Amino acid sequence: MDQTKPAIPTLGRYPQLDRVRAPHDMRNLSVEQLKQLADELRAETIDAVSTTGGHLGASLGVVELTVALHAVFDTPDDRVIWDVGHQAYPHKILTGRRERIRTLRQPGGLSGFTRRSESEYDPFGAAHSSTSISAGLGMAVAHHLRAEEDPAYRERNVIAVIGDGSISAGMAYEAMNNASHCGPGAERLIVVLNDNEMSIAPPVGAMSNYLSRLMSSRKFLSLRELAAKMAKRLPGRLERTAKKADEYARGIMTGGTLFEELGFYYVGPVDGHDMNQLVHILRNLRDAEDVGPVLLHVITEKGHGYTPAESAGDKYHAVSKFNVVTGEQKKGPSGPPSYTSVFAKELVRQAATDDRIVTITAAMPSGTGLDKFAKAYPDRFFDVGIAEQHAVTFAAGMATEGLRPFCAIYSSFLQRAYDQVMHDVVLQKLPVRFAIDRAGLVGADGATHAGSFDIAYLGCLPGITLMAPSTEVELMHMTATAIAFDEGPIGLRYPRGAGLGLALPAAGEVLEIGRGRIVREMTRQSGPEQGGIAILSLGPRLEHALKAADMLAAHGLSPTVADARFAKPIDTALVEQLARNHAVLITIEEGSVGGFASFVMTHLAKTGLLDRVRFRPMTLPDRFIDHNTQDAQYIEAGLDAVAITNTALEALGVGISMTQPLLKTANGPKS
């Protein structure tokens, strides 16, 4: 690095922020100084994300809250948990990571979410929603138990910051319901409900409407504060009477709150951008005793303080690099359509002639491409909020009545609904269609969002059908196949990012279930090994299998390349053919161990063919792969063309090793 340049390019521009190396530097600042700090922190966040891209809107909405929390509470001893973690960029800047904030989501840089290994100020790693209250309650109870054993141990405050979208998930209510029964350990738990009327998409359902009604009771907060102050001046017996009167008044004036019925002391709504109010209330909650777990309802605006974000429909939820002055995002060169858009387009086309097709998503209409379906067929589109478990069983109920439901969920999010997939869908052989987006490695979002495990965790379930397209054309065929398949549950997994740019047919064709295809036949071998090499690819690695085939062909070892198409049921005839006619059989997939390769190997072992072929499975390694570009991740995983080539050569015992592709271009798969 050039030592003449400061590690922080904005150093000297923000005097108040320059003084803060860690949260303890904020503890003696006045409210006016904290306001200035918040303004500078917002500007620094905007400047940093403009160079890296990332989740901007949510971070801008919690700037004042972030400053107030670290100024009032004794972090890191007091624990602050950011639900999901995508809104924690200002938190990272204030907690000793400002020098590295421009490495956010970059190779070797800071994670886009909270991570325990990154900082002691990140007490709980998160990138999926609705875990903060459960984790916070566990921490609060643990602190209490430790304090009971060791009188010198100070009980910590635990603050869980959860968004209005995340609190729609059942896990949040399970935690709140449990908090009222956890005894004194839960008394130091403060749940901050960050209500910005938008998570990724606008929130849906009864909770959104309920929070809107609570917002109408703003005047009640000041009346309640006044009553509390007056009650403190009364004798003990009268204070207890006043407390009961306060509870009665709350019931009359607001009808009570769901949160209080769950055992939480409700405070709010509070303006989340008013530093005076935030600091005052947080100090009171910090010092309060015997009030039990608290829920502080904070109203914020996603994208607050940055005009381009405030005026955007999605409040700049996730952005690429952008111009700070204009807000214009830098777009890469136009390329082929994404797998997601190809799936959505084919589904919309098919729905025009099949009114049994319905779609379900869990708060990800644009991410899954179903926003296009919603626009075309709003009565057949259902966004259930961040509630994957409900989404799956909801789809199961539809399937029992003859509809053809498509449940579109990211691979890593579908993990949250595994019991529902098994018990409510597969066990009952219901024809729910699972559109499993973001399968495989996903780039800058890293391990938390990688779709590494769906082949393994779904493939072990009896009677499920699993498909993986090698190209966008194959995805069209598999979408049509899923629509036509009414015999039971079926899933199609496809990656993040663009296709290969192949010409798309007018319509998808229905494939024969469990049948793969030979893409390239082995030519006559000139090498020393008779029998040659077969590469059986599942999913988009087929492109690299064909590149590897070109590299091997340059050494007189042109292999057979096949597209499995189906992870389950496997094409047993194809597998047996490849094993009988080749010395080496390589399988390759964008999934973990225990997936497609395991199914193939089990069949080979049962038929005795494993004894006669050198079988080499290529899967994701048995470890998590950190954020990077997708191409770099697959190289690290050993699933690129060079790795495939070397695997084949090593299996043959040929003394050649590739370090880079011999060919800059390779023929793409033929459809």
Automatic annotation (TrEMBL):
InterPro entries: Dxylulose-5-P_synthase (IPR005477), THDP-binding (IPR029061), Transketo_C/PFOR_II (IPR009014), Transketolase-like_Pyr-bd (IPR005475), Transketolase_BS (IPR020826), Transketolase_C (IPR033248), Transketolase_CS (IPR049557)
Pathway(s) it belongs to: Metabolic intermediate biosynthesis; 1-deoxy-D-xylulose 5-phosphate biosynthesis; 1-deoxy-D-xylulose 5-phosphate from D-glyceraldehyde 3-phosphate and pyruvate: step 1/1
Keyword annotations: Isoprene biosynthesis, Magnesium, Metal-binding, Thiamine biosynthesis, Thiamine pyrophosphate, Transferase
Cofactor: Mg(2+); thiamine diphosphate
Co-factor: note: Binds 1 Mg(2+) ion per subunit.
Residues noted as binding Mg(2+) in the record, renumbered to the chain: D164, N196
GO MF term set: 1-deoxy-D-xylulose-5-phosphate synthase activity
Catalyzed reaction equations: D-glyceraldehyde 3-phosphate + pyruvate + H(+) = 1-deoxy-D-xylulose 5-phosphate + CO2
Binding site for thiamine diphosphate: H86, A127, H128, S129, G165, S166, N196, Y306, E388
EC number: 2.2.1.7
Transketolase-like pyrimidine-binding domain segment(s): 337-502
SMART domains associated with the record: Transket_pyr
Family under the similarity heading: Belongs to the transketolase family. DXPS subfamily.
Function: Catalyzes the acyloin condensation reaction between C atoms 2 and 3 of pyruvate and glyceraldehyde 3-phosphate to yield 1-deoxy-D-xylulose-5-phosphate (DXP).
Name by which UniProt lists this protein: 1-deoxy-D-xylulose-5-phosphate synthase
Naturally occurring in which organism (per UniProt): Komagataeibacter medellinensis
Gene name of the encoded protein: dxs
